[in-house]
Amino acid sequence: MLPCLKPGDVLLVEGSSRLSTVIKYLTQSSWSHAALFVGRETAQSVGGKSSDCFVEVDLAEGVRLVGIDEFEGMPMRICRPVGLTPRDIELLIRFVCQRLGHRYDLRNIFDLARYLMPLPPVPARWRRRMLTLGSGDPTRAICSTLITQAFQSVHYPILPIEEHADSQGAFLQPTTGKQPLLRRRHYSLFTPRDFDLSPYFQIVKPMLVEGFDPYQLCWNWYEPSLLVPDA
Fold first, then answer.
1. Is the C or the N end of the chain the one with fewer CB within 10 Å?
2. The whole model's pTM is what?
3. Which domain holds residue 204?
4. Nearest-CA neighbor of 198 among 160, 171, 229, 151?
5. The domain that contains 97 carries what CATH number?
6. Total domain count for the chain?
7. DSSP helix/strand/coil, 29
């Protein structure tokens, strides 16, 4: 997998911890964790080990550097931003590296639960305004919000809100056909699955990138006879 990764790629992971199970349940998605690929050279330049190449947020250790072996045996997906300049990729990576050592924001998990599963039911358009999201402490983060903040810092869209306005700036209904204005969602409302759902990220499949030849596959054509149970 590593040869096909590029700095700025988002790695989605299907974890199996208790917290991962909670996140998967709340978001109704198999992706419970996200990490940003920064590359080995960058990781070592900020104090990482030779095997480190990702920045992630850990419940116990906070924002930290890890290697691909940290996710061994877990289902993964690579989401790649498209069209960013090398300068913006550099700023993106610098953003997350400057936050190494920051802590995990458990309050944001509770706020996400309130947003995703409101009780009593609250219309979606009102939920964000009702919540005081996260701890308010800039040294706290969770995996998806940290990466979201990094992309928003270079004005790259994930799942923006479309608003429409006329030449005087008055908002119009989307059916008018006017050019939409994009408004950011609050970074604390993002979850790992949003990078998968975003139309602005390309899904990279390592097996296809490295060259897939269906004619080189070895098939087992032996089909054992079906056993019919006794009546």
1. C
2. 0.76
3. 2-160+186-216
4. 160
5. 3.90.1720.10
6. 1
7. coil
